[in-house]
Amino acid sequence: MTIAPANLLAVRRLLLNTLNVDPGRTRDEDLEPAEVGIVGDPAHRGGYHCGSDRVVAGDYSVVESPRDSAGLALYASALDVGQFRVQSGGRTHNLQTFSTWCVAQCVANTPDSRDIREIIYSPDGRVVRRWDRLGKRATGDSSHLWHTHFSFFRDSTKANRDQTPLFRRYLTTIGLLEDNDMTLEEHAWLDAVHKALTALDGRNSIGQIYTRMALGEDHTNPSYVSPHPTLRSLAAQLTALQSALATLSTKDFTDEPAIIQGVLAGLKPESIAAAIPPTMAKQVADELARRLVA
Hints:
Number of helices: 12
Order of helices and strands: HEHHEEEHEEEHHHHHHHH
Radius of gyration: 43 Å
Largest sheet: 5 strands, antiparallel
Number of strands: 7
Structural class: alpha+beta
Helix content: 40-55%
Oligomer: single chain
């Protein structure tokens, strides 16, 4: 049974949340839920509105691109958008201006439009045109005078790749959504940085990984010994140094007897005698005589 993929349902919600201005009642000006379709009705066979259970032999939505043949699944891979009319930024915006804007993005090959295979639309409500990325078709039936058809390469729906950026950018451009002043490349860069900061190998955050590396730990080998200094080894060395300094700070490194002995050893007897005050000379002589007798 063909089903609507999550990524196209997200586009549908975005458009309805923004362009169905009065969801409490049906108005010609609003984009109503019945006007945004993904899965074809039960009688629908073949084409991007059908999944693998409804495609037909030689189906163009499967055989003309390897992206489609490789992505074939039960998912429908198309979106129809009906009539709306809104005022924003002093201008009127409707299905026709929306469709021509989207086609211009596809022609410019913007990063957020590269999963779109084709757009069948009317630029003025009188003629039907078809932009085809593969350049195989240029027309569509008259029903596209009042609705625009988007086909997405099937591999993008199978992979559930986000398709809202193009449509969000349109709604931002016309002033219905707030602009955060970031380009698509900046968004992609920010996403890459975020992923790098939150997951290195799919199991642990990068912060935890680097903490273990700094500590010299390996989550797969408890007995791992780092060949390099780590936070833990450096902390142990610092603690030992602090203990040694604390011990040395309590010691008296002045050895007075040794200092005196060293000084006297370098003096002549005459110099020593000259250095003794007269009041102490007799006492020194008596002490020396006593020691010599002993």
